[in-house]
Write a structure and sequence with these properties.
- The protein is globular, with a radius of gyration of 13 Å.
- Strands 1-2-3-4-5 form a 5-stranded mixed sheet.
- The chain is α/β, with parallel strands linked by helices.
- It starts with a strand and ends with a helix.
- Helix content is about 40%, strand content about 30%.
- It contains 4 helices and 5 strands; from the N terminus they run E-E-H-E-H-E-H-E-H.
- It has one domain: 2-Layer Sandwich (Transcription Regulator spoIIAA).
- Strand 3, helix 2 and strand 4 form a beta-alpha-beta unit.
Length: about 110
């Protein structure tokens, strides 16, 4: 994925902090592998924090959808927080804004899982 992908826990919610660019190639596959790893570890509540993402392309959006599907198929939830205007616009153009639960505030997003 991007320049940086870190995982942290907030209660029983796993927060995946992304930074940099989510684009075609190694970046997107790193993202996919991290989501799979979390799912195989039995993580059911995953919050993807995109506040530090500067750019996302269509393959990055594809990886988000793939991650969402993977988590959902394993009985979990994947939600988004910290979307830039560009990412929000991209999700609206692709009609994916209705698929993802998206929040502006991390605390509110974490609470939404209970």
């Amino acid at each position: 994925m991007s320049d940086k992908l870190t995982v942290r826990q907030v209660g029983d919610v796993t927060v995946l902090d992304a930074a940099g660019r989510i684009t075609l190639g190694e970046g997107a596959s790193t993202f996919r592998e991290k989501i799979r790893e979390l799912v195989s570890d039995g993580r059911k509540k995953i919050l993807l924090n995109l506040a530090q993402v500067s750019y996302i392309d269509s393959s990055g959006i594809g990886e988000m959808v793939s991650g969402f599907t993977s988590v959902t198929n394993n009985g979990g939830q994947l939600k988004l927080v910290g979307l830039s205007k560009r990412v929000k616009d991209l999700l609206q153009i692709t009609k994916l804004y209705t698929v993802f639960d998206a929040y502006d505030d991390e605390a509110e997003a974490v609470r939404s899982f209970s």
